[in-house]
Amino acid sequence: MMKSNDQGLTIAGKTYRSRLLVGSGKYKDLEQTRAATEASGADIITVAIRRVNIGQDPNAPSLLDVISPERYTLLPNSAGCYNAKDAVYTLQLARELLNGHKLVKLEVLGDEKTLFPNMPETLKAAETLVKDGFDVMVYCSDDPIQARMLEEIGCVAVMPLASLIGSGMGILNPWNLALIIEQAKVPVLVDAGVGTASDAAIAMELGCDGVLMNTAIAGARDPVNMAYAMRLAVEAGRTAYLAGRIPKKFAASPSSPMEGRPV
């Protein structure tokens, strides 16, 4: 059996086998969270500090009971924050809860209806966090200029949305993603909007370094099987990208050409 020659995803100097990052929210219980996470093959698991217990409440079940920091890299995120100040405070709290953990996902939302990123506040929070020693992966709009600004601030990965969080609409603007990928010197990961396995594969075929998702898996009829499907899709899309697709053209090209055959 052939194997991909992929060397893995490197973020902030550490290399991970899987290019699929998954969330830990929206599952029916912690056991389903554990099973879907294992099926996904993911190494990095996002944790919404404002919504998921990792020790803030010692009297409630903890995500750490089923997702071990010794096995997985936890990625605390500032989901639910609508300004830079709250986002910075939330991620500083995560650092305390996780014994100095530096790798975080910055997310500053614009409003509750669209959950679109508030980019002025995102840029402000990113600058503060980088100066404070964090390794910042950042949820952002699919704007190549602002993605470049975040990279220049010092973010270790940019994570443009494919479409609105939880929408399942897939990649609505592949051209902007392609522009971000072309210019970036840090990993580019699609964050938000993936609905099914083909969306994940398309993101990887475009040249994205990885895909982060939660709702597409946790909201599926069978989250564990969907997690496994997403694992295969990301691997297939990455392998296809490395293999190099044929160019699109308007003329047919026979599978068995006649040139050079005897008449």
Task: Give descriptors for this structure.
three-stranded parallel beta sheet; alpha/beta; 263 residues
How would the blueprint of this fold be written?
Layout: E1 9-11, E2 14-16, E3 20-23, H1 30-40, E4 44-48, E5 73-77, H2 84-97, E6 103-106, H3 119-131, E7 135-140, H4 144-153, E8 157-160, H5 174-183, E9 189-191, H6 197-206, E10 210-213, H7 215-218, H8 223-243
Parallel strand pairs: 3-4, 3-10, 4-5, 6-7, 7-8, 9-10
Antiparallel strand pairs: 1-2
Write up this protein.
By secondary structure, the chain is α/β, with parallel strands linked by helices. Helix content is 35%, strand content 16%. It contains 8 helices and 10 strands. It has helices spanning 30-40, 84-97, 119-131, 144-153, 174-183, 197-206, 215-218, 223-243, and strands spanning 9-11, 14-16, 20-23, 44-48, 73-77, 103-106, 135-140, 157-160, 189-191, 210-213. The strands form 3 sheets. It has a 5-stranded parallel β-sheet with strand order 5-4-3-10-9. Helix 6 packs parallel to helix 8. The longest helix has 21 residues, at 223-243. It is globular. The model has no long low-confidence stretch (mean pLDDT 91).
